[in-house]
Amino acid sequence: MKKVLLLGAGRISGPFIDYLDRKCDCKVIVADLSEENLAFAKKFSICSETVKVNAGAEASTLIEKYKADIVVNFLPPEFMPKVSKICVDKKVHMVHPAYLDEETKIMSDKIKEEGLIFVVELGLDPGIDHMSAARTIDHIRKNNGKVESFRSLCGALPAPEANTNPWGYKLSWSPSSLIGASKRTAKVLLDDKEILWPDGETYKNVFLFEVPALGVFEAYANADSTVYKEGYAIPEAKTIYRGTLRYPGWCETICYLNEINFFETDVRPTKDMTIAQFTSIQAGCPGAPKQTLCKRLGLEPWSAFILRMEWLGFFDERVIPFDCCSPRDIVSLLFSEKLIFAPTEKDMVVLCDEVIAEYPDGKKEKYKSTLIDFGVPGIWTSIARTTGVPPAIAVKFILEGKISTPGLHAPMSKEIYEPVLDELKNEGIVLEETIEYV
Prior knowledge:
The chain is an alpha/beta fold. The chain has three domains: 2-123 and 382-431, Rossmann fold (3-Layer(aba) Sandwich); 128-254 and 342-379, Dihydrodipicolinate Reductase, domain 2 (2-Layer Sandwich); 267-325, no CATH class. 35% of the residues lie in helices and 24% in strands. The strands form four sheets. Strands 3-2-1-4-5-6-17 form a seven-stranded parallel beta sheet, with helices on both faces. Strand 8 and strand 9 form a beta hairpin. Helix 3 runs parallel beside helix 4, helix 7 packs across helix 16 (414-426) and helix 11 (275-283) runs parallel beside helix 12 (289-297).
């Protein structure tokens, strides 16, 4: 029986293991430091072995011990280069859903020479978005068209009926990555001009985007979109924009929090300090935090941002539960306490790709691909399912020989995107495709 070594058993591991349990003749060994994560993994019959270990530090030993045929890396991004190198050295295939790192990219020739298959950036975003884009762009190329504009927007959000707090957001993921993104630099191509928004300025360049049947959302740029001119092989494109969707009001809130430096990581003594006192310090002077913050930002007490801050607890006269912490730690604490789903509530994933193409006869068409997916309360979230199932499908197809070309692959080749998208459809993860004349 083929063996799959899963490094890291976080939230996406459940849908991953469940798919392989139902669809693949293989054994999955799960390595993680968390007893809770391993207990969850043991619920699946295919997962006949779990090991409590620092999976990042012991990856090489684990590969040798279990004679793994494929390594699936669900560890945080900082472990990607190390695990990639170990897999090359041990001559083992690898799959992971995170963005490709530069160190692994440098190893691409070696990966191919060794006859290994590395599939990266195969989750939701990145992942399903790549496959949707590649399928559309290949169709356009086949019909002698050229891509004029590409835009991809994705959001992991509360379902409309679960959108019950003034922040318009609930955590279906760890707060650390969400908060870290609040200082992210973004780069886009608009009308053939590269535009850079450093250190969170992307939140000041927001626009409204309507999703049929769901309503209007905010959209803002996410990371570096310009690399996909090469990645998607669309050198002729004049606009390339990859972004994030949120309910209206989110970007205003992030901008104000950035203005008062609440996403910084500098640690300071906070023993016996209240959250209200901490907020006053961030606002720049002592005093009642609500009034101080209004004065600092030029806002009224009834403004939406001030009311959101009050609701979340930034003005609470309760002692901070850390002797030392950073502003970001305070945000993370309050997010994890109040921006949470009730047991019966569902999360929602929304992915919208739009490609405008021009053809030799002068005709222009807009291709839209839309995914709207909901979680299942008490089982798993939509973000976990849409991120965890794609790499599981890739594992199955590599083991079966349906994905067989050696090398380092993002899922943009027909050999990968065609069977994976078809199988996602079988799993109920379906992109609705439309075409309209421009």
